[in-house]
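ingest -> validate -> predict -> emit
validate: passed (alphabet ok, no gaps, 346 aa)
predict: started
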Amino acid sequence: MKNIKENICSFEINVDIGKKFEDFLSELDKKKAIIYSKNLRINPKADVVIPIDDGEQAKDLSNVLDIVKTLFDNDFDRGDYVIAVGGGTVLDIAGFAASIYLRGINLVNVPTTLLGMVDAGIGGKNGVNFAGVKNILGTFYQPSNIVIDLNFIKTLPLEELKKGLAEVIKYSLVLDKDLYDFLSLNKDRILNKEEDALEEIIYRSVNDKLGVVKEDERENKGIRVVLNFGHTIGHAIEAGSNFKISHGYAISVGMVCEAKIAEEMGYSEEGVVEDVLWLLQLYGLPLSIDKIGIPISLDLALSSIEKDKKTRGNFVMMPFPTRIGKWKKVDVPKETLKGFASQCLK
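emit:
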């Protein structure tokens, strides 16, 4: 088991990698509300149990308000716990509810997918979709504990594992050359779900993300934008498919597109695009829309770029890989970005 402790603003965050969820629950002596995905085959024991739907379609404000009402009706106070068990959707919804109930109640994230363990469960961002735009309503609110029970990964289909690996690969491309090398040399061990290999890539990813979040929790210093590599185009792909394309696959294609844009604009060293393509292909991730097999509306995708949260005036802040493990923030004219996106997403 590996442990990471980090202080972000007034929050002390404790991350346990390899700890059993049941063991953690037994250590809590306060009132507990467990919010979990209906897709999980678990029988959680808590004061309140709230099963919710998974997937982007469930990220609606009405679901957040339902949770808040349940907490209120059961007299939860600020010393009690909201425990989110599930993938990114559940973590987003539960985190948002925990952040607004009584201006903040103890939050524990128990991600059950690799994507949640290395991304959605880390960093304190949560939110729901609104008017067809991803995560337009939300807050920054850090969990006090993050419990990463590797037993959840062992039950994941290989396809779901690969979707999470897209985010791991993201960290390696813009923040962590050592992680890139580890991924390059340990494909079989990772895809075979060997525990020590999974523990290593999760540990490195969590460390990478927390290090960035500590420097720029609320995205006002231009540092946290690095975590959005592949996401400007990736979110456009999701919106263009009416969220039928999974986040991991959309980000995979998004990273390819954005690496090509960086090269076209002269920010990437020669060979970076080839390195991006090689690692994604090594893990069987899609490199283009046609490889996903789900059509998208280009108009919807471009409309999403118009509403991107990283927009500042007529520019979109984007992190470009300059070499493997290094990056640079670039303000890209919105029309230029839309032109590149149109070419990449045809």
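The chain has a mean pLDDT of 94.
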